[in-house]
Amino acid sequence: MSSSSYDHRSDDSEPTPAFLAEVRAALADQDAVPRRVVEAGYAAFAWRSIDAELAELLYDSATQELATSGSRSDQATVRAMTFASEQANIELEVHDDAVLGQIVPALSGDVVVIVDGEPVLRRPVDEVGVFRLQPVPTGTFRLRFEGAGTTILTGPITAG
Amino acid sequence: MSGAWRSAGDGVPLSQLVRRAVEGEQSAWNGIVDRFSGLVWSVCRLFRLGEADAADVAQTVWLRTVEHLPALREADALPGWLSTTTRHECLRVLKQRNRQSFYPGDDVVERTVDPDAPDLDAAIVAAERRAAVLEALALLPDHCRALIELLVRDDRPSYAEIGARLQMPIGSIGPTRSRCLDKLRSSPVLRGWAPGSPIDPSEY
Asked: Do residue B199 and residue A62 have CB atoms under 8 angstroms apart?
């Protein structure tokens, strides 16, 4: 620490306006984050012990995007999505009144709807891996499959 | 809201927060999230993501961070890792959005950004630098942090008011301010950043 800095005793002295501006900008960055986003970040810690595998969006008929080779030529009237993880894929069809899903290959367990990090709905997966979420979850949610010694978490889904 | 931000991580070095979070301490994790949410959020905003998309990206980034934390060899590498991961997730969201013919949401007008623009790189570096400033600030003694946060506000209170609020004689505010700013500038956290590195020109 240099002694020269002690000389700035005047109230109006601004020895480092650029640096102060940067500190102000840094604090503004922090203040700009919505509180609920910070809290969702806190909640992410709960996944630590669960060791969930993140399933990535592979296909979404709403974007006509197919990230890997292969094709789907059918022009479905319902929205279809595929989330892929190492353990299994999660296939979804969004109907007006429900979301139908299938774990491929079939694994026994439950599917949980997660909103803002909190479970809001839990449904069993049947023997061929099919599950049904009714009504269609509103807003943005994630699905978590729990069972067969594994946990798979999808990316965010907006179905409604 | 400036000056109102208090974090469980205040005063605790990042390496210690990371170690304690890996050991399972939620409050240490919260300290990490508090410290770097601003970085994640401003990178999202640089990609012009709307608030809903940015919130999704932020949550995905924190989920990945929880996964990645035990494998992190150097705590100092975390800010750079966060910035890169956020950028990657933003690009993924933009790729999806841009191929979508119709998107029922308010993000639709904000979806165009050139991910290769040199300005974007510079702006991300500037955001990382501001995150380093926040980290340096978090490591200052409480009275220094409180004083600096009050002094840089746009509606900066009078010295009399600051003195009353921080229980500090008015005459010592100026010298304390200089000492605290010196501490901030010479913080080890900012050592890797050249003094006077370019700051985000769009901000000023």
From this structure: no
